[in-house]
Amino acid sequence: MKSYLPPLGPKADKDTVRRHNLSLVLRAVRDEGESAEATRAGVSARVGLTRAAVSSLVEQLLDSGFLTESGKTFSGQAGRPGTALKVARTGPAGLGVEINIDYVSVCVVDLAATGRVRQTEHLDNRGAPPGEVLGRAAGIAARALDSAREQGLHPVGAALALPGLVSGGAVRQAPNLGWNQVPAEELFARALTGLWPGASPLPVRSENEANLAALAELWFGGLDAVRSFLYLTGEIGVGGALVLDGELLRGAHGFAGEIGHVVVDPDGPECRCGSRGCLEQYAGQTALLRAAGVEESGGGAAGVMELERRARAGDARSVAAVAEAGRMLGRVLSGAVNLFDPDAVVLGGIYRCLMPWLSPPVDAELTGRVVSGLWSPDGGRLRASSVAGDAARGAAALVVQDVLADPVAYARPEPTDA
Amino acid sequence: MKSYLPPLGPKADKDTVRRHNLSLVLRAVRDEGESAEATRAGVSARVGLTRAAVSSLVEQLLDSGFLTESGKTFSGQAGRPGTALKVARTGPAGLGVEINIDYVSVCVVDLAATGRVRQTEHLDNRGAPPGEVLGRAAGIAARALDSAREQGLHPVGAALALPGLVSGGAVRQAPNLGWNQVPAEELFARALTGLWPGASPLPVRSENEANLAALAELWFGGLDAVRSFLYLTGEIGVGGALVLDGELLRGAHGFAGEIGHVVVDPDGPECRCGSRGCLEQYAGQTALLRAAGVEESGGGAAGVMELERRARAGDARSVAAVAEAGRMLGRVLSGAVNLFDPDAVVLGGIYRCLMPWLSPPVDAELTGRVVSGLWSPDGGRLRASSVAGDAARGAAALVVQDVLADPVAYARPEPTDA
């Protein structure tokens, strides 16, 4: 018999407890600071540790540059006034780099996940050698990092958002970029180190772009209490991500969420993935514009704006094309909802602006096909994504989340010069 | 901006640390006992706590009846001989109760998750009032609990495995039983308390039957290193479960895994769920036997045996019916694999004995439709479930897992009489 027990965790010793509590206090200051001024007393009440323990932890966080404190505060706490604590605006920072088909967007966030630097360049990345694309991205990133340093930020890591199957630091396949087996992290890190030499090279990680957009939607969007959702982003491809109880579901190899390649019609048109009749062939940007009779000249974005304009004007062919895409989306989504049971389905990318015509057929399919009447059309569970859901910021925030989870691992032994 | 931080966990204080470490030591004895005799020295080495700390924790576990020790052992440890520690065979136990369409199966396991009592009765539960079915199940359970007590076991909880949508202690819907909004936990607990009065009523939980069969497959089956898989069980309905990294994926409302209601053909035959063309209508037992021309007289099991016999004899209609079901299964599974990216797909229930004719078309669909050639036909990722994957044992083991995770919560203040 195989052991059915979960693997043994690390032992809980004094050092582990202190590191855990440092993270608790740092996050409590961050959360407390949302609504009021954070004080040692307030943090103590929030996390349930003694005032003395909190004071000691706060000292360490101040010394390491994770927190700052300002003058006296009288914000409702009994007893003598405390000083107001804040997450440092000049402390550790995360770099996010989104490489997409026709643009590169770079974002630096501070410990509060506030965007501090943003650089976006429109580039046609299709067909360019991957090393060249990543080199250009590193150039944009280096400029953003310089700006961040000027603001007193100390970047501790970078995350790449890539439109394809990403695992083990490489892009296994990104059909719309024409990439195959590209060691993206390594190529980017090498280019960045050349352009932006630091004390030590910036650690680089990578992740699927839809996954990071979904995380940004979760963290910074308008989802309120929703913690489990399916995220779809309509682009040239149809990207997807699954968030369950506030965590990204990556799958066994990191390839989960490929909803664009769920089959709609087994004998349908050939897909770039090698299969036939995938959702992408019915609800992707190219298929949608073709069905609507909109020329995709001037780039996809212009085509989608034209489609929206025509639908708004009541053009029958445009409305019918969007409705048909909605039926196909709804059919695939009903299966996904039966499998995953999320709180909500969030539609992003080109679907955002098409919601008035897209959501009724999607909702109708979901209502008819989700088991046992668990989906009702006016339940508010089908939503458009917010503008906040952008992959570059999600990537940058991912880096910073690691810092908050274990600040000790990111404490600088001594201040570095700016 | 919404906080993007995970919720604050409990503070790590001395009491929490000790409870955590008691669980560590208990589980280490359990794991160590798999291959060799467990000693205090061996446990100390395994979990990384000092000998003195381990001795103190072991004393508490011995006093509370979670562990037993026997004579001297010389099992390869340096220094003076220790005594051999074992997880108690007379300690806390879990009760699992599977209520299915045509049988009730009850299982009691000890702390090592070894089955110690099993009672199965074939009953036609279709159409009987839910209270009556649960009352009968409680009667069978009471007899099993008596046997367990005679073996010195102390049942600490029960789990029900139910073939339907289960949440909040109730069966929301179990179409094949004809149940709607049945407060199963309450009805079972009340019936059991009447039949088996204890010092305090046994806590009862409930779970979807396919979910528990999948957990049993994970814990006791032949999956080796596989920690993420899709589990399908073919019965009158087609049940499903998703296990990710060793954890059951329950979804936002507990209804995840309803793969039987993923649509195959939007205009296909009506399904009991209210939709059309669900997988169940193509690959469920009834559809399969009908397509093969096998009369379902004498119960479904007899029909499936007859189908297997005919397929083995080369009957063309039977082989074609199974192959067609396999294509539909494979089509739906390819979408599920694209969404979920599991290590393996495990087929149970009636599919187990039909694998020779079922697996080639399933594998062919997966190979053709899973993105970017991530599925290869001979990768060993499509498997038949093992006999160990039974829902009653999974349910009982679930109860016991709680004990192992926090033994203090289940410690008896004083020994009770048997």
TrEMBL record, chains A, B:
Superkingdom of origin: Bacteria
By its UniProt entry, which Pfam families does this protein fall under? ROK
The record ties this protein, via InterPro entries, to: ATPase_NBD, ROK, WH-like_DNA-bd_sf, WH_DNA-bd_sf
Q: Which family does it belong to?
A: Belongs to the ROK (NagC/XylR) family.
List the protein's name: ROK family protein
Provide the species name: Streptomyces halstedii
